[in-house]
Amino acid sequence: MKQCSKCGIEKKEEKFNKQCNGKNGLRASCRDCTRKEHKIYNQTHKTNNANMYKSIKKYKMNNPEKIRAQNLLEYAVKKGRVKKERCKMCNAVNTEGHHDDYSKPYEVDWLCRQHHKERHWNNKHMENARFNDSKLYPASI
Question: I need a surface site. Which of 36, 80, 88, 109 has the fewest CB within 10 A?
Answer without folding.
Answer: 80
